[in-house]
Design goal:
Strand order of the largest sheet: 1-2
Shape: elongated
Helix content: 55-70%
Radius of gyration: 18 Å
Oligomer: single chain
Number of helices: 12
Order of helices and strands: HHHHHHHHHHHHEE
Length: 233
Amino acid sequence: MQASDLDRAARGRLRTLSKDNADGVARHLVMAGRLLDDDPEVAYLHAQEAVRRAGRVDVVREAAAITAYRTGRYAEALRELRTVRRLNGSDEHLALMADCERGLGRPDRALALGAEPGARALEPESQIELAIVLSGARLDLGDPEAALALLSAPLVKGAQGEVALRVTEARAAALHAAGRTTEAEELLRTIGLGSGPGDGPGEDVVVFDLEDDDDQGTEQDGGLGAADTAGER
């Protein structure tokens, strides 16, 4: 594992640090990314060490936010995401922030985030991710019809790839909550999920993909770059 294993964009954000410190921070970020799925607690510790050494760098605080989120530290993750937003002015993590609010039992605040002007300027896939989170917030508030309405927007219905699977799972969860169990099960069968124990739709279906697309090169493997968001609840 080397500092050069961190993706180029993230390494660029570390240029304000001394070379030795930047290399050390980069290695901690690489390890945080590599361990996130298999050992999120250790990934969290690596991110915390990176924060100790470079707490004013946005990608470092981003890594702290993601690892906190993945270990269920929703209040901490939300604080870190707000810090990232102050540092770089980006709204890219609105969906993750909203899901943290859900994790804290505050679906109304999640919906408020979704109503912010920045939400409408997100990239299409990020808008879809946000819609999935907001549909979950509507379910938290006992309003499955509103959840279904969010998932029926043209952009969301046109989702493709992995995010389309998450939209399908979210829609099935909303149908199930609305008492339309047969429709929910039929929908789940279209993506290969059965109706046996543990196979039905759950309330929490959001999964933020940490990994970059394979065609972006192996240079990014294992890193937590500026554009990476991930976690699941």
